[in-house]
Amino acid sequence: MDRLKGKYFDIPPKIVIEVDIKADTTAFENGADGYVMQKARKLLDFGAEKVLWIITSMQRVYVIDRNDPTWYVVDWSETISVLDNCSLNIKQILEDEEIDY
User: What pTM value is reported for the model?
Assistant: First the structure.
């Protein structure tokens, strides 16, 4: 049986959703973008299938899929496929929940 060890699992998540960056990104080439790309690559190498990184200050989402060589950034008003029959639209969720942004 796989067990939680400290803060990390032994098995990769299918989908990773990150929100914002709280790390110091100054040491990374291209700053925050470099940090997102490096961490996303590590998550994919670990076995994650998809990484969605929401940047609230820019109202953007990085969409990084192990099966798609094109990593892209979209406005958070776009509907993003997360899994089969499961999609995500950040702006719509915020509006539905009456959350100011």
Answer: 0.85
Q: Please measure the distance between the N-terminal and C-terminal CA atoms of the chain and give it in whole angstroms.
A: 41
Go through the chain and tell me how many residues it has: 101
Domain ranges of the chain: 15-96
Of 58, 34, 91, nearest in space to 100 by CA: 91
Q: Which tens digits make up the pLDDT trace of 63-100?
A: 999 999 999 999 999 999 999 999 999 999 999 999 99
Q: Domain 15-96 - what CATH class?
A: alpha beta
Strand 50-55's sheet: what is its strand order? 15-19, 50-55, 60-65, 72-75
Q: Which two tokens stand for residue 44?
A: 């994919």
